[in-house]
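Exam revision sheet. Question 4 asks you to relate a sequence to its structure. Input first:
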Amino acid sequence: MPSKSNPVSRFNDVLLFIVLVFGVLYVAKLFLIPIAIGGMMAMLLVPLCRRLERRKIPRGLSAVICVLLLLALLLSICYLLVNQVVALGKDLPMVGAKLNDMLNSGHNYISEHFQLPVDQQKAYLQKQVTGLTNLAGKFVGDIFRSLLSLLVHLLVITAYTALLLIYRRRIKNFVLDLVGRYAGTTNLEEAHHVVDKTTDVASAYLAGVCSVALIFSVINTIGLAIIGIENALFFGMLVAFINIIPYIGSVAGSSIVILYTFITRDTLMTPIIVALFFIVMQQIDSYILTPKITGGKIQLNALATLMALLLGNLVWDVAGMILFVPFLGVAKVIFDHVDALKPYGTLIGDRDTEIKTTKKPTITR
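Answer key, structure tokens:
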């Protein structure tokens, strides 16, 4: 019978633990996603709540004020987006007509130069379009289902956010009590530091992401309006908020606007200008805004971030793609302060100089 110190036995225990964790995350996602969103929103509002509490406002009232302000902001953004979608819907017949003209021109060109019958072209195109439509429809459907689920659970998420803000000291004391019981009282000071830093990192990262999204909403709207794109406010906000999803969001959002411009304009110059505009904006985002605002908050490398995105999509769909990156950042803060987990923090970090010569007190197992 293998002992507990057997490496194979320990590996099996770790593997079983990972399977159980992600199994629970997948099975209980309808229950856990609102709690996770509420937790992220609570972390985002912690600095504002602390400022109100310093002004002698009771914690419960401070939490309610913070949640109401955030809720008013979210509802205002949703109101603007709905109005823009209604305005965009009026242009859909024109878009459909131009798309049909483009397809007919393409059929005629191929028929004249490649001697391929139009009927055969349409049959092949219909087959390809059906597959792409199903794929795009699934992706768009996932997004709308996530948004609908968010709206349906908005009251629950709001309640979770307010209650987590109110009971955050009790939750912190619970974590510290667990550390004192299982890791010893000598590690309480470092555990206190880890809890505070975890909250600060998550709060600063989420605030930075929201700030970048708002800045890019303004810049994108102004830029698209100058270029002469209709519904510039809708497309500017759409690209900015899709950009919250790292790596994938910027390409997906800009591609939607470029495709729309390509269909609605009679010249290729406008889509090219729009593409160049988004390329420049992406460089500004990658090398100026994001490093300055969020770059130092969660130090994850590209591989770890991409894996978190794909794993989040697999477990929690679109909500997981947004939530799993800050979750991994919080996990890295914990990894960096626990001796046995430091290699994992180095693995997912974006810097090679994680180990310092002056050793800080860490939590030992």
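Marking note for examiners. Residues 357-361 have pLDDT under 50 and may be disordered.
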